[in-house]
Amino acid sequence: MLGVVIKGGREGAWSVVDATRILSITGNLGDVKTTITHPATTTHGRLSDEQKAAAGIEEGIIRIAVGLEDLEDIKRDLARGLDRLVD
Fold it and tell me: Buried (b) or exposed (e) across 57-84, using 16+ Cβ within 10 A?
């Protein structure tokens, strides 16, 4: 599993999440398929802003749990989302 902070806060993070086609959007990271989530609105969505800050949950964080798909497919799928952030 890895977490990355995407520039642009929540909007930037969801732009990446929404662009993926292979990665499954979910709040549950335990699966054999690769999953992607936005913790600030899923796993930590019920916390107050203060609690999120104390836990290190920024609006721009996305978490990815790598599954059994071909690594090149996963990389291409993530690149599709990350490319949206480049001017």
Answer: bbbbbbbbbeeeeeeeebeebbeebbee
